Amino acid sequence: MAQTVMSAHADVAGAGIELDDIQGLLRFGFKHHTEAVFLLLQVTDAAAARQWLGNVQVTSSVSVDPLPKTVLQVALTGAGMRALDVGADVVSGFSEEFLEGMAGDPNRARRLGDVGENAPDRWDWGSGARVPHVAVLLYALPGNLEAFQRSIEAQCAAGFELLYRLPTVNMGGVEPFGFTDGLSQPELDWQRMIPAADQEQLGYRSSSCLGEFILGYPNEYGLYTPRPLLDAQRDADGALPRAEDNPDNADVGRNGTYLVIRQLRQDVRGFWQAIDKYARGVPAERERLASLMVGRTLTGEPVVLGPGGGVDNAFTFESDPEGDRCPIGAHIRRANPRNADLPTGGIGIVSQLIRTLGLNSSARARDLAASTRFHRLLRRGREYGVRLTPAEALSAPPTQSGLQFICLNANIQRQFEFVQGAWLMGSKFNGLHEESDPLLGSRLPGAAGTRCDYFSMPQAAGPAQRLEGLRQFVTVSGGAYFFLPGIRALRFLVRVGASRSS
Amino acid sequence: MTPQSQFTVVAPITAGGEAALRALLITMNSAPGVADPRNPLVPFGEFAQLHFARFVILNDPTLGDIEAYGVPRPDLPNYLALVGDCDGPAGACLAEMAQRAGAGLRRIFGHCEGFDGRVDLLAWMQAHDLPIAASYVNWVGRTVLQIKEESALQQLLSARMDRTPVASAAEARQRWRQMVDLVRNEIAARRLSLTSPEPTPLDWVIAKSANLLVSLLLSLLALPFLVILAPALLFQLRRQETRDPEICPRPDSDLLVELQSLEDHDVSNQYTAFGSAKPGAFRRGLITLVFAVIQFTARHIFMRGYLARIQTIHFARWVFVDDKRRVLFTSNYDGGHQAYMDDFINKAAWGLNVAFSSGVGWPHTDWLLLRGARREQYFKYYQRRHQLPTQVWYKAYPGLTLTDLDRNARIRQGLERELSDTEALAWLKLL
């Protein structure tokens, strides 16, 4: 039986969802746990490491009252599974990108924009010999982290070497540039209300099938994402859940997911100084330009809604097809274009057929990026460094601030890598050219020498206004792909390793 | 208007010649899989009418899959293919290549059977140029010259454009007028050129119209028979769909790495897939019909920037090899491979199923249109497993995507006619 901090009891979740087996990070952002640190470990003594991983208390997704003082979550890389001797028969069932790792292939680095200043060989961790094996994420209510961290680090010392500590600070829901962050999140269908079927969606919705974020459940195609399935005989005592789609198999993936960590160093001073220059020192203009780059104001209001639009998350860009209010290349519009499977048009089957065949030119013009429901990320990042206001940032000495970007997804390739590569870094995203994400772009010219350092802001009355010569504001300084297992799967993986090694 | 055409020169590789051929082909590249336009073997950049070209070795590791259908693994050769898309007749392009890159082509094709120093290179290439079963051209009539000239035009105007808001549509028209004058001056000073399109070849117009007429006539004639036969054909389709084995294992990691090493060096990519057709007369008939329908729609409907909802394909083609036992598919597309495949799955899975479900091992379809490629991961495994590494790939206009070409063409069109005030404002927004 899984050893969870709390006893399992049914709450919000629908039938057949084992909340007590799912790590809490999938359901909660732990926002009351304002203190957090992420420990990146490498195995030095496999037996001791397994011993610790097999017994450590891992917080599940069950809601409890009062909140636990401390929370611990565990995730493993492919290298970590090998170090724990999990065995190729199990490990090979994980996805290709997970097994190769974020920095394991120069072709991947090229696709993700991890080139130039972002190149893995310049990272503080995550590349070469500095690939972590295990990530231990610690969260605590105010005042409780220090002792907890000390105790966990002491416990880990027998089996692991501490490769890197990712610190975090509580910036109150604001990222280092000063923008309210984490507003747009997919809503997981914990009740399993969305039918497990392949149906074209004619409207944007922010809810997502559970299988987009948790393995072992149907995804937006109504299918089960591949994951390691084992002959049930390998798990005779039933320690693992059985696969829903294949009851003869034990499901190592069920209740787990992939966790992506990227350490993003933000040049806060450089960002505001650059924008101040474009704004010729006028504070209101500075804020306007920065808001257009992000797609939201500092306080989080989507610019597409105009002043007084509120921070409602139910908006789309439908009313602004040319980007006159929210630029096509604004960060939030690249990261989530908020559209449906088919461009909107007249009602009725004939109109739908015409759009499906591509014969409606107005629909085609809005169809370059589509079907966002297959490319959503559940974000769980935390800030680090010093929080500055834009005015402070202009005069402050350079700071080491940034984001410990974390996202969860069941298919790294179709979700994180697609959003990062095709949408954020893509210099031709949605018909744009000569620009990539205004916040994250590396500004490196294309292979043909084409520039990539513009940011265009279409306007109703004339040609698009452009910021020219944008600098790089965000630098990747580490990253890795992890598997965040179900709690039973974690114990199973450890046991498999132990039996192979004994 | 100059129509585009395509060539697909396919010849078997001599026994034991493949390794040396691979080594030779790689010398043509400046980055993995990316041809140096000035490489001494075939300096693609010298052929002004050439849009895309590739050399690819057709060595199908999935040849044995057909055994799952109760058919023995056939003994078929590996081929070398030279694939290209050009303005004007393919024969003229091949002739120019034979003339100006004859030595290099002879060295390359010297690894093919039946090729020796004495053959007439052009005649040999034309004899090996396989007929195209179905082809797609993103924009019929858009030439390499036009693309390059319009790109230069866009760059000039974009740099010189006054980007302050206009007070009125009338002012937009004034600003447009200034740009028209600017372009006129630049052309007069020979810093810019905008060559007028050639007259459309009469034989092409006649052939196209005749094709339309004959196709419609044949369809009309065939319709009653199809209606009568429909129940039997649908029964047969359904019977096969429910019984055909699905062969979609996860592709080998080494293959994936090799394919990916050839991708994403610029904004566009190549795709080459090769595989066997399902055995039997029914499939043979179906695949022939399907390609005829694709060819018809590409010729008469999808010739202005889109193939159904897909707007990222420059050129694509299907070619029968080995007496319709195998099919070669090649395409040139914008964006990364992942986005290309997701685009297809999410926008036109039905089209993929129609076009490819007669391929051995294709993910299970329902009624030819449904499921199949919507079985996302099976399809993704399938297409990667059937993809071949393209040893050498050339694109005449690096850095430009179809949305660029389309925008640039509209910019030019806005200079060549009188615009109303509101049209002038819309034109300014293109820049």
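qc> The mean pLDDT of chain B is 96.
qc> done
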